[in-house]
Model the fold of this input.
Amino acid sequence: MQRVLCSIVLAILSAGAAAAQSAEIGLSVGASAFNNNGIGSLRTFEDGLIPETLGNGVRIGARWATNSWVFLGHEFSYAFQRTSLQIGANPADGMTVQNLYYNFVAHATPSGARVRPFGTVGAGVSVYFPPGASSLSG
Done:
């Protein structure tokens, strides 16, 4: 166990001296927290408008970046979120949110430099699947 911990510490300490890679892969696990959790409202004949809100949940994601050219690269990321949905005062089943993003990256220094400032521009989409709908159903 001590050898594993020493290996991890040495790898972290030597990361600053390592050469720049041609690709990066990252995984993330955390909580999805919504600042503005109102997503709309339902209209019923009896009660009028009923607000719909999302609750906090779990988020799992992955990111892949590649440096395709000396100064240019690409970054792709995907995240899966599971949250709760509340309609009015009634809690409903969980809701699935899937996020897919792409970024084009331009570096200020060539690949292999110790420090690589960069700028990026991209786009993404988030798809919400309400309770009862399968994210694999198409």
Observations:
- The helical segments are 2-13.
- The CA atoms of residues 85 and 133 lie 13 Å apart.
